[in-house]
Amino acid sequence: MALAIFALGLVYKVFTWFTYRIGADAAGIPAAARVGAAIQGMVRTLFSGKIATLLRAFLLDAILQVKVYREDRLRWLMHTLIFFGFMLLLLFHALEKYVSVPLFAEYYPTVNPFIFLRDIFGAMVIAGVGIAIYRRFFLKLSRLRTNSQDQYAMVILAVIMLSGILLHGAKIGSSTRYEEMVQEYAMNADEEDLKGLEAYWVEYYGTVSPKAKGPFDAATLERGKLIHEMSCLQCHSRPQSAFLSYGTALLMRPFALALDRAHLPTILWYVHFLACFIGLAYLPFSRMFHIFATPVSLMANAVMDKKTSAPANIATRQVMELDACTHCGTCSARCSVGVVFETIPNLNILPSEKIGSLKALAAGKELSPQQLSTILQGMYLCTNCYRCTVACPSGINLQDLWFSARETLLARGYPEFLVLSPFSYYRGLASEGLNGGRYAKAAEMAREGILAAVNVAVVRDLTVPLALGESALKSKLEASFQAQTFSQCYRCVTCSNSCPVVQNYRTPQATLGLLPHQIMHAVGLRLWDLVFSAKMLWDCLGCYQCQEQCPQCVHVADVLYELKSVAIARAREKVSAETGVRV
Amino acid sequence: MKFALQRCCVTSVFLKQYEAATDAVLAKLGIELEEVKEFNCCGYPLKNYDFTACALSSARNLALAEKRSLNILTLCNCCYGNLKHVAHVLKDNASLKKQIDTTLAKEDLAYTGGVEPKHLFEVLYHDIGLDSIKQKMVKTYRNLNVAVHYGCHLLRPKDVVQFDNPFAPSIFDQLVGITGAKSVPWSTKLECCGAPLWGVNDELSLDLTEKKLVDAKQAGADYVCVICPFCQLQFDRVQRILLSRRTSAVSLPSLVYTQLLGLTLGIDEQSLGVGMNELPAETIHQFLGTMEEGQAARPVHG
C-alpha cells in the first residue's frame, strides 16, 4: 500500500509540474501544450549531442554534489554520508531480493562482509543525520532556518536507522530467536550437543539464554563448535562485525531476557517497517522528494536557456524547481540583502523561505491580502544580483522565480513601496518583455498607497485659513542630524535651480508639485499635505546637487530622503495596523 | 597594498565586462584583493525606504572589513557614497549606532571606524600615483576625445565623501589624461546619469540620459567614460533602449575607465570585455598607438 501511495504521489507531483503556474507568462499556456513542449524539448536535447552535458550535470552536480563541496565541506560530508549510506541500504538491504541475491552468489545478510557493510552504511546515515542536527541546532549559522519539513526528514531517517540497529541488536541477544533457529536447523542434535551449541552461541554470538550461563568448560564449547560448524556457520558470521548492532546488544544485555519476553524484536520489526513505509508513502509530499526533482532540475539547468527554451518549458521548469529545493539555506547565506531580515523581519526576504511562499502561490492556496503583500515585499527586496541562483546546489534559477512571482503579485493590484527604490532598476531593464500598462502602474500604485497612508487631501481649498499640520512629523525630522537643517533655509531657490529634474521641465511645478526649496519651506510650516503629495519627492534622483550648492548648508537631499523614509514608514505602519502583519 | 573588494550587486550578471576589466587592471597594477564572500549589498537601494536597514547593510560590510583589518575597495560610486555616508552618520548618531552594534554583535562583528571605504580612483591617484601608472603603460591614445562622467556619489556631498572639488573636479580627468585621451569640456559633465529613476520613472530617466549624451556628442566626444556600474548600465544598456524608443536620440558608446586604461597597459580587448558592451565599442583600438606616436602627436593632457 505504501508503494501504491508513493507511486500515486509521484504521478501527482509530476502532474502538478505541468498544471501549476508561476508568473504571467505561464498563465496563457495550457497544460497539454506544456506536456507536448516538454516531450519535444527532451527528445530534441537527446538527439542534439547534449548527452555529455546531461551526464556531466548528473554525475558532478547531482551525485557528487560538487557545488556543495565548494560551498561548505562539512555540509558536503553530511549529504554524501546520508545519500550514499541510504542508497546502498536501499539497494542491498531493503531491496536485497532484487539486488543482492542475484548479484552475489554467496549473499546472506548475516555473513561477512554483508553483515558488516550494512552497519557501515547505517553508521554513515546516522553520522550524516548527526551532522545535520549539529548544523541546524548547535552551529550558529546565520539565516539557516529550520522548518517542519527539515525536522521530519531528520526524524524519519533517524527512526529508520535507529530502529534497524536496535532490531538487529535485540535479535542478537534474543533467546526466542535462537530457539526458533535451532528448531529449524538443528532438530536432530541430541541434548548434549544442543547444550554445547547454546554455550557456544552465548560465548561467541552474544545470545542471552535463560538456561546457559558462562563460564563454560572447554569440552562443552568444543562440542558446540562442531554442531555450529555443521548447522550455523554457513549463514552466520560472528555478530561483532555488525559493530553498531552488537554494541547495542551489549548495552541491552542486562535486560535482554526481559526485553525478549516482552517481544521487543517483534515490536522493533514493526517500528522499522512502519517507519520505512511511512517514509516511502510520504516521500513525494515531503522534502525528500528532492531525490527525484533535484537531478531533473540540475540536468534541465545544464541544457536550458531562458533565451532559447520554449516558454511552455520554462513554465514547467519553474514549478518543478520548487520541488527541487532542499531547503539547505545556501541561497539565504549568500543573499546580498539577507542581512536586512535583521531589521525588517519578513521571512520572505530570505530566498530559502521565499520558496515556501511560492509553493503556496503556485498551488493556488487561498492567501489573505496581507500575506500576499508580505510575500511581495520579500520578493521585491532583492538586488537581482543572482548570487542565490549561482550558489544553488539544486540548479534552481531562483532569480527568475522571484521575477515571475513579483510581476504576478503586482498585477493582482498590491502596492509595493519598494517599487519607488533603485531595486526597480532590474525591472526597468526587463521592461521590454512586460505589459507596458501594467509595468508603469506599479510605481503609480505605490505613490497612491503612500498618499492614502499619510492621509492628505490633494486639492487644497485656498479660502480656508492655513492650519498647521501634525507636529510629530516635524519633531521626527528635527531629531535627525541631517534633516533638521531644513530650518536654516532662507529660500534663495539655489537648490531648485541646480536640480536636474526641475530643469527638465518647462513648467516644473505643474509636474512636480513643490520644488525642493518649497519643500524645505513647507516642512517648516508643517504643510504635510503639500509635502507628501509633491511628485518631486519620488522623482528626486538623490544626486546631491541641491545640497552641494546650498549656501546655507541645508542638507536638502538628506531632508528629501528623510521625508521619503517617513512617508514609507507611515504607509507600512498603516498596512500593518490594518492587517496585523508587520511589513 | 591589499584591500577587501566590494563588488557591486549589479555587475556579476549584467556587467561581466566590468568585473573582467577591473580584475585585469588591478592585477596589472599589483593591487592585492581579498574577496569577502560574506559581503552584502551596500544598502544604497534601501536609502529612501528604510534607513536603518540601509545603514545596517553598509555597517556590516565595514565590520567584515575591519575584522580583516583591510580597507574596502569599491569601484561603484553608489556603494562608495553609501558606505561613506553610513560611516559618517554612525559617528554622530549614537542611537542608530547602538541599534546597529547590537545587531552586528549577533555575528560577532563590530564597526568602530578602524577601516574606511576607498574608491578605486583614490587608490590610483593617491596611493599608486599617476607616474607609476604611466610607467606601466605600453600604448597610448591618439586623437581620442572622451567625455568624462564622474558620477554623483563620487563628488557629493563633499563633506561626506571628500574626494575632489565637487564643482571643478580634476582627478578623473587626469586619470584619463595619462592614457593620451583628451577629456573634452561638456556642460552637463557633473550631472546625474539618470539611473536612480530607471524602473521608477522611465521617461524622466531617459530625458536626463539623453540630454547628457547629446551634450557629450556636441562637445566632440568619441566615448563617454565612467567608473560607476550604474552609470555604465545607463549609458550602455539603457541607451540601447533609448535609441529604440526615441528616434531623435544620438548614439554615443560608453567605456568603463578600467577598460580604457587596460588597453594602454597592454591588456587585450577580450580580457577587458570590450566586445561585451551593448553598444559597439571595439573601434576604440583604432585610437591606440605606441608610446612614441602618442608623444609625437601631442602633449599628454592633464
Could you walk me through the main structural features you see in this protein, from its secondary elements to its overall organization?
The complex is a heterodimer of chains A (583) and B (302). Chain A has 583 residues and is an all-alpha fold. In chain A, 65% of the residues lie in helices and 0% in strands. In chain B, the strands form 3 sheets. Chain B has a 4-stranded parallel β-sheet. Chain B starts with a strand and ends in a 5-residue tail after the last helix. Classes of the chains: A mainly alpha (583), B alpha/beta (302). Chains A and B meet through helix 23, helix 32 and helix 33 of A and helix 1, helix 3, helix 4, helix 8 and helix 11 of B.
Concise description?
The complex is a heterodimer of chains A (583) and B (302). Chain A has 583 residues and is mostly helical. Helix content of chain A is 65%, strand content 0%.
Q: How many helices of chain A does DSSP assign?
A: 33
H-E string of chain B: EHHEHEHHEHHEEHHHEHEHEHEH
Mean pLDDT of chain A: 89
Overall structural class of chain A, as computed from helix and strand content, comes to mainly alpha
Task: Estimate the strand proportion of chain A.
Answer: under 5%
Low-confidence stretches of chain A: none
**Mind describing the biggest β-sheet of chain B?**
4 strands, parallel
Based on the structure, what is the oligomeric state of the protein chains? Answer: heterodimer
Number of distinct beta strands of chain A: 0
Structural class category of chain B: alpha/beta
Strand order of the largest sheet of chain B: 2-1-3-4
Query: Rg of chain A to the nearest angstrom?
Result: 34 Å
Q: Please report which band the strand proportion of chain B falls in: under 5%, 5-15%, 15-25%, 25-35%, 35-45% or over 45%.
A: 5-15%
Report the biggest beta sheet of chain A as strand number plus sense, adding barrel if it closes.
none
Q: Any idea what the radius of gyration of chain B is? A: 19 Å
- The 3D shape of chain A can be described as elongated
Q: How many DSSP helices of chain B?
A: 14
Helix content of chain A: 55-70%
